[in-house]
Amino acid sequence: MTQSVGEKWFAVCNYFILAVLAAACIYPFLYVLSASISSADAVKTGKVLLFPLGVNFESYERVLSERGIWIGYANTIYYTFFGTLVSMALSIAGAYPLSKKRLRGRRFLGLFIVFTMMFNAGMIPFYLNLREMGLLNSRMGIILPFAISTFLVIIMRTFFQSIPEELEEASKMDGGSDWQILWNVYLPLSKPALATVGLFYAISRWNGYFWSMILLTDESKIPLQVLLNKLIVEMKISEEMLQTTGVQTVSVSQETVIYATIVVAILPMVVLYPFIQKYFAQGMMIGSLKE
User: Comparing C-alpha atoms, which of 66, 32, 57 is closest to residue 251?
Assistant: First the structure.
């Protein structure tokens, strides 16, 4: 189909805007990566703009050689895997009944759940509640209290509502129970929704920092993000001491170590995303259907 002059100009402007937005999103990643393998002088003087200068990997050696870094990685993988598993199980178990019109009190339950998005008890009562439940310095204290996201439950419920009810009726005629219908019909048809919601949960678990820092005191249980923050603080103190004593570091500085820790922290999610990108792209339209 022949495009008009206006449509051609619109396409050009659209591609230009998308290219600028893509460059704005990609540049920070490239800069952090380049700064992490550049010399300290190049980073401090602002010479590193896009490509690395004075390439060396001493910052990564400094970060990866720190005691406990691999324990922190293992803890983060543990919290991310089991936390996402628990979150998905509870979200599906909550969203599936709420998507059924035959559920008594469905509207009241929906409003009650949405209420939690607008009001909460606050940080201190929440902490005291966890303390009374014996969840301080506990792995379950990181997994269970943060297992549910109300917003993601609503998204999952909306997707379940978009699946034709005729499929459920046909399954019931074949003698299928609610659990069998959920497992054999709804979940296979919900791969985009499951991938999208699961990715949000996994990213939240992987980047979990604040409450892990507050609730965990045992160093053998702290996740990667808390450990990396600790390393950055210690590196800052060490550099201040070196400057006080007059010792100069040429290839490694606080800035290069910080950039290296950022790369170490985000690398697994960057590697994982391309494998589920096709499901995530489909799932971005979840929730756009009106009930």
Answer: 57
> What distance, in Å, lies between the first and last C-alpha atoms of the chain?
36
| Residue in the structure block whose two tokens are 């290839």 | 251
Q: Contact 280/195 with Cβ under 8 angstroms? A: yes
Per the listing, tokens 């210690």 go with: 234
Residue identified by tokens 């300290």 is 40
> Which contacts of 53-58 are long-range, i.e. CB under 8 A and separated by 24 or more positions?
54/251, 56/251, 58/251, 58/252, 58/256
pTM of the entire predicted model: 0.79
Contacts of 72 (CB under 8 A, 6+ apart): 222, 223, 224, 226, 227, 228
Q: Do the beta carbons of residue 130 and residue 145 sit within 8 Å?
A: yes
pLDDT in tens, 16-43: 999 999 999 899 889 999 988 888 888 8
